[in-house]
Amino acid sequence: MIKRNPLVMVPGPTPVARGIQDQMGRETISFNDPRFVADFNKLIASLKNLWRCDGIVFVVAGSGTMAMEMGVANITAKGDRVLVCSNGYFGDRYIDICNRKEFELETIQAPWGKSVTVEEIDRKLSEKKFDVLATTHVETSTGVELPLRELTAMLKAKHPDVLLVVDAVAAAAGAEAYMDWGIDILLTCSQKAFGMAPGLGVVWASERAIEKRKSLPPIPESYVDFEKWIPVMKDTMKYWGTPSVNMIWGLAEATRMIEAEGLDARYQRHRHYANAIRESLEAIGFKCGTDPEVASPTVSVFLYPEGAAIDDAKFRDTVYEEGAHIAGCLGDFAGKGFRVGHMGNIDAHTLVSLIAAIERASVRCGHEIKLGAGLAVLQEILVG
Ligand code: PMP
User: Fold this and answer.
1) Which terminus, N or C, of the chain has the lesser number of Cβ atoms within 10 Å?
2) Pocket test for ligand 1, best of 72, 92, 189, 343 (most atoms within 8 A of CB)
3) Long-range contacts formed by 127-130: CB under 8 A, 24+ apart
4) Residue among 65, 86, 186 whose CB has most ligand 1 atoms within 8 A, to mutate
5) Residue 183 and residue 58 share a domain
6) How confident is the model at residue 307 (pLDDT cuts 50, 70, 90)?
């Protein structure tokens, strides 16, 4: 029997389109070959325009965690008052990153499956002056989307001096965000809603963030220092650390695909698909673990039906055998359900295959459903 690779439906990496893979597979040329320099410059310009950034976009080899470090390192100094708002595992990672720096650090942590609210943040920021607020747009461990639009509006109106850092690793290109809402640092990486392979960090910095970096003494970090990368991002002929030529070509193609779809259309598609997946899995007894008010368009957590006695590891292995790779849960949800990434360059075929694989695995694992019940709901929603 022909065995295909399973669909990659974990919350990153996500399926990588053939055209993107082809770009990564090109014969490598030097980073200062004029042909590559032109491609890299074009990528930087596109990312800046698409996200309405008045400052500078950095594309640097590394994972999302590197982008998180780059985000805070460049706009903070020893003694700064930093507030981190965490909705779960990756928000806690930002707390850990900030704990290693000599900040006056304060945190707000949401109960599992819920979001820190804009009101709570406002209250905290009203207690005393903070320099920086760092938070996560979509929390991958819980599927929670922070109400970013409301947060930026509140900050603009009431705390305009606070610099806002947003970890958009599981959000950018899938969940609405634009720099001109009042975001100072927006960061992501290649393997999530961009639909690229892992390996690149992307950091958008506002003009205000760049000014802040310029006002600081030399920062302790070297590789992620904006001052080192600014000349490169303004003219990719310049050198700081060797750009990962083939990854950048891949990201350029992923960005071209985003441009062709249109960011707003892409955001809408993500919301539509997220809704379709949730409705169809709920129709066969899986409960979305995230507060519906803040359920994200890119990642979902599904809890096993009460009383179904589904063995978590066995269930996910069976879904894998049936052709879709889904992820286990973390924290309070560990062992109680699974996580699905539904972001990037996926389409109706992907969703049909995912739901069908979960249906077959359900029956094989003793969760007695009517085959096709979830698919029927999915098809209705997809047809509109
Ligand atoms: N932040 C969020 C919200 C994430 O989902 C992840 C990765 N799952 C990270 C940060 C860290 O990214 P990476 O694993 O690429 O370092």
Assistant:
1) N
2) 189
3) 128/81, 129/81, 129/161, 130/81, 130/82, 130/83, 130/106, 130/159, 130/162
4) 65
5) yes
6) confident
